[in-house]
Design goal:
This protein is an alpha/beta fold. It has helices spanning 2-7, 24-35, 51-58, 78-83, 107-119, 182-194, 200-210, 216-219, 225-239, 282-285, 304-307, 319-336, 340-360, 367-375, and strands at 18-21, 41-46, 62-69, 75-76, 89-95, 123-127, 152-157, 170-175, 243-245, 256-258, 274-278, 299-303. It contains 14 helices and twelve strands. The two termini are 27 Å apart. Bound molecules: pyridoxal-5'-phosphate.
Length: 381
Amino acid sequence: MAQYYQARGIENADPDDIYLGNGVSELITMVLQALLGPGDEVLIPAPDYPLWTGATKLCGGTPVHYICDEENRWWPDPEEIEAKVTENTKALVLINPNNPTGAVYPRHILEKLVDIARRHHLMLLADEIYENITFDDVEMVNAASLSDDVVTITFSGLSKTWRVAGFRSGWIYVSGPKQRAASYLEGLELLMNMRMCANVPAQHALQAALGGYQSIGELIAPGGRLYEQRTTAHRLLNEIPGVDAHRADGALYLFLAWMQRCTPSKMMRPSSSSCCVPRRFWSRTGARSTGRTPSTSGWWRCPVSRTWRRPLRGSLTSSATIARERSRASEAACAQAPGRGQAASAVLLQLLTDLLEALLGAGEPPLAPVRQGFAALPQRQ
Ligand SMILES: Cc1ncc(COP(=O)(O)O)c(C=O)c1O
């Protein structure tokens, strides 16, 4: 694993700096457990991979979310992050490539995030589990390659690039001025020792996975399953009136915004008289803003009466609603999928169908091309 990071341009990566765990999920919890006490704050992206928020709370800390704005390619805004640093802030989390937005952060943004961590003495927690899943030659920069002088913990594992999530195998790489984090690392090692060891059979898979031929290369190239699914999903979804998704530069997700032909009951209402619409659709709804929503700067709060009476009636659903729909649709599709081999495509199709039917109404014509488009995609081998 040290060689893996060396090959990615982090020349001084050393085996002693690598810790193994039963998946990144376990390691996130352990890393935060060793770090946080009551009142400690962790800067976490929104939308986020929810484990980061949940684990922070579980460990007694307080998640403080910084916005990744859809209008800015879902990239974080360094100024906003810095404004949220307090004397209680202990760490800055970045997820790159990002779940759920599919964003890959450019070097200049990463440099600014590293600089914030440097100046405020924050630990940088870089969840880079999708680091090898990027499209169209987008540059993926490991934060650790920019942060020699910042205590940095990089997370990765077998679940995504090597597609064996059930093996429960992940690792962290600790870099930067480790002497400054000596007591922290002692605590972390203690927690790791209390767990005895990471899953041994999966450790045999690590060498085989990280060395040699990398099948992910074909999947993310034009003609490959992941590339074609991403491209087709993006194209077909954006053809549906009212649905809007940025093209993902990496990871396995598209994050949708949509204009719902809404009935008042389907609208997300922060209060009985207002709802949220994405700012980018503002001119189309014709509604007047009453201010930013508290949750994201890309959305506006506006009076209900102004939106649902308009022809392109605007409303938005919250990421919580998306997540609920997502897990419900995935469970249903998994139950019906004929075999494990087809599960991934089936889940994706079912998820899109369920979501769109729930929002647009069953039998709407836009779903037909989505179904056909997905049926024509390469199936999982
Ligand atoms: C951003 C991110 N981090 C961590 C994980 C957890 O990975 P693991 O299977 O190694 O626990 C996931 C899984 O979806 C993820 O999307």
